[in-house]
Amino acid sequence: MARQMNQKILTPLAFNVHAQRALFALAQPLAHLGTAHARGFSTSRCGLNEQHKPEGAQASTSGSSHQQQHQQETSSSSDQAQNFYNTFKAGYEHVKSKTAGAAGGGSGQEPAAKRLLQTLAKDLREVLLPAQDITSATRAYTGPVASTTYDGPTALVLARQQATGWQRTWDTVQEKLGGIPLVSKLLNLKVTDTAAYKKGQEIVEDIKDKYETSDHPVVHKVEDIKARMFTGSEASRAMREIRVRDPSFDMNRFVQSVKLDAPVVVRAFLKHDLEALSHHCGPELLERFAGIFKHFDEQGVFEDPSILFIGDVEIVEVRLMDDDPFIIAQFHCQQLKCTRDKFGNVIDGGANQIQRVYYFWGLQQERSPVVTAEGKVVPPRWVIKDMMWQSMLALV
């Protein structure tokens, strides 16, 4: 009965042959243990009944012998219980290992669910990186750099290259056959100087010129296919160039780096701080800012630099400009629409009027990284070559 009950309880867990065998091995000690306990309980009960009989010394001796037998059976039952526990533990470990192997496909690989969770955790770490792990993408490095001076010899020395075995054999053949006029003429003959080669080159150039100036639809279709197959899209070529200059480039980290720089640059722009902007912007944009700030200074007005909120950064376009990677990014800021004069009077907007301003940055990657004095390689920075701000929408 106990054997049937244990098999009935454990059968749904045995989903493969190895697990069924292990569970069946576990059920047998459990059945024997139940039988042993029942026998021990029955024997001890009989001993107790005989002890209560009104007999003399023989009854007492009989009760003592039954008590000793009961103790021996109890000790044997404890040993069986310990053996059952050891057998159960070993079988459990066996079933556990077989179950893990079946869940992993039996090939030693990690389960698909575990791999999926690991991939999801990696993506979440890339998207939700802590702020201390993100560095500025647009700020120029101003610390000490590694020395690039060379103190070794600089004079050029001519060295004769050792001839190979083939070259020595060819030189020997030329020396032996150089006295024959026909062979000497063939050896000194250049194919590019023949009339047939020149005529063929003229034909090829004529066909090439006609193909390049043709307006036939088939020609245009062929050129489009060639461009897609061999050059790829402009964004793919730009990304390839980005990774050549910075093999560790990651778009998620780049977006977070731009978001880290956004409040610094926008606040410096609102404060008309050219020195702070010079660490992030290119010379052309700084010249344009200087003209805008000069106009405000001549009128004696300034804007409120308070920034309430910075939105998420979005990548608008990735392209090449003058063979340099160029990324256009956008974000929005919630800031106060308040312009004051030199006396502090509000001349436009209000001290409690909130507006949303959309900013567009044109970021161009530098060509080479920077090596610090400690030997650390700083990736090429992204210079803000252009900045635009779109129509401001009042929120309240």
From TrEMBL:
Cellular component GO terms held in the UniProt record: mitochondrial inner membrane
SMART domains found in the cross-reference section: Tim44
Alphabetic keyword roster: Membrane, Mitochondrion, Mitochondrion inner membrane, Transit peptide
Biased composition (Low complexity): 56-78
An individual GO BP term: protein import into mitochondrial matrix
Subcellular location(s) per record: Mitochondrion inner membrane
Single GO molecular function: protein-folding chaperone binding
Main localization, broad class: mitochondrion
Tim44-like domain segment(s): 235-376
Region (Disordered): 45-80
Ranges in a coiled coil: none
Family label: Belongs to the Tim44 family.
Protein name: Tim44-like domain-containing protein
Species per Swiss-Prot/TrEMBL record: Volvox reticuliferus
